[in-house]
Amino acid sequence: MKPYATKKTYKKIALVFSLCLLILWGVLGTGASLAWFTDTSPEINNIFHFADFDLTVSYFDENKEWTEIEADTTIFDNHALYEPGYVQIVYLKVENEGTVPFNFLTAVNVNGCIEATNAFGQPFMLQDYLKFGVITNIKEQDILSGTLDREVAKNNATITVKEIADMPLHNYATTPAFLPSKGEAYIALIVRMPEEVGNIANYRGTTVPKVELGVTVKAEQIVN
Amino acid sequence: MKKLYTRFFHIPKHEKIGEKAMLVRVATTIATIVGCLIAMSLTAYAYFSCDVSSVLNVIQAANFDAQIAITDENKTLVEPSAKEGKISTFIFTVPGTYTVTLGKGTSSAQTGFCVLYIGEDTYHTQQIGVDIGANNQNREYVSFTLQVKGPETVKIESHWGTSSHYDYTENECYIVDSRPLKVIVVGTATNTVTDTDEVTTTTTTKTEISVSKTAETTSTTTIEQSTASTTEHTTTLSTETTTTVSETSVTKTTESTIPTETTSVQTTTFPQTTNITETTTVSHTAVSVTTTVSDETTTENVVTTEQTQPVSETTAVDTGASTA
Questions:
Q1: Rounded to the nearest 5°, which phi and psi values hold at B63?
Q2: Which of B29, B33, B50, B64 has the highest number of chain A CBs within 10 A, making it the mutation to test binding with A?
Q3: Interface membership of A130 toward B (CB under 8 Å)
Q4: Fewest CB within a 10 Å sphere: which of A60, A81, A206, B210?
Q5: Would you call A30 an interface residue with chain B, using a CB distance cutoff of 8 Å?
Q6: Distance between CA B323 and CA B319 in Å, rounded?
């Protein structure tokens, strides 16, 4: 028997043995854990199952119906033209269709802006002359009855809307809000151009000033 | 590459495994374990979080650029002398009545208005388009009349928004689209004295010039008359002319009977001295006479001059003038 062959064999055997022990350890550990967390008592008190996490967001479309938002859905009217006093409100419905409660937040992102020339020949960015706001405690009844829309239509923008939607348009996120399982929440997004905006944002030429806006509703599991 | 492989990865068959090769294998194993742990964590996080996005929203602006149409009494369109940005400049040189019509044109904004700059005055128009202050009435045009009395520059600026947000005085500097059309008087007539000038002086000037004349001469008389009036004419007189300066009143109408050529400038200076030389010149100097002359002004100046040769004589002119 050659000594080299014996050494090699020993090494192989040792390696195989180590692997088997590793596998045995894993099996023992997993089995013990499973046994620890299961009980065959007639009253099932300890159920270990994976949580179901599901978020659905819909928007109130022009047909006065809730339409689920997909990846290519635009919730703002892309044909709307903003001028002093113009207000656009978008209503969102957030539903927790999962089995665990979560915290959710609404984020607005300015993804891009096209610069244009104003009446005085100066370059300007449209987002500098827009205001926006988010209302998170709105009721569905107010949305369906058009309460906020009527207030806005009364006189361009009421004081209420002016107070709420008074932030410059920029990247923004609300604070997380709790939503229980099978719960619903309603959000109003308001984007407006104040009435006092003068010819400094009245563009001339062929380049139309634009702002590309992204809206994201994000839900996160509650950490105990 | 072969060197690297030999140094860090190759385990010779019949030799002891190198230290570096061993370290590489251990590091690779650890890195794989760490990578799996990270992937598991991220997967768990992704499983228990969710988001819905709408990223294709576009916010765009409207614009307002009014369509301006100005026509004169003959319905001829008046073109702007300059247009910069939203401001169109119109220069009126011919007095008359002009109709101004402002419309939305190709503006994409729902409403807007115009600001007129006439001298030191600023006018704002009613809303052109949707007037929220008038139950959302849609007003296509705002028209008014400009009564031009004299040369004037008018600038018209297109402005979006609502005119009620800017300072204006209703009824006076606010232009509404009404029937009959609102009239705005601009400019100052060139041959008028200001309406505030009242005749405070009454000047009676009688000038007699008599010069013996022995030969026929043709004299050129230059009458310079300075008054507050801007009417001017120069006269070329024949041999026989008489000059009388009549009393001036609030409305002075004078007829010019000077048969000779008249130009547009007439100035009279008083007192006067007459030096008759070979070419006779008669100059009249008058005290300041304030007259109010209507648009149609005719001047009556009858100058009587008798001239004789030799022309080297110097004749003093007696002028009798009284001012009140």
A1: -145, 155
A2: B50
A3: yes
A4: A206
A5: no
A6: 13
- Amino acid, res. B199: V
pLDDT one digit per residue (tens) for chain B, 324 residues: 788 777 777 777 777 777 878 888 899 999 999 999 999 988 887 777 788 998 889 999 999 999 999 999 999 999 999 998 899 999 999 999 999 999 999 999 999 999 999 988 889 999 999 887 777 888 899 999 999 998 999 999 999 998 887 777 676 788 888 888 888 888 887 654 444 444 444 444 444 444 444 444 444 444 444 444 444 444 444 444 444 444 444 444 444 444 444 344 334 344 444 443 444 444 444 443 444 444 444 444 444 444 444 444 444 434 333 333
pTM recorded for the entire structure: 0.60
Q: In terms of DSSP bridges, do strands A184-192 and A87-96 run parallel, antiparallel, or are they unpaired? A: antiparallel
Number of Cβ within 10 Å of residue B290's Cβ equals: 18
Which residues have a Cβ under 8 Å from the Cβ of A45 and sit 6 or more positions away? A39
For tokens 């000779």, the residue is: B260
Do residue B86 and residue A202 have CB atoms under 8 angstroms apart?
yes
| Rounded Cα gap, residues A134 and A148, in angstroms | 13
B256 vs B207: CA distance, rounded Å: 17
A209, B61: Cβ pair inside 8 Å? yes
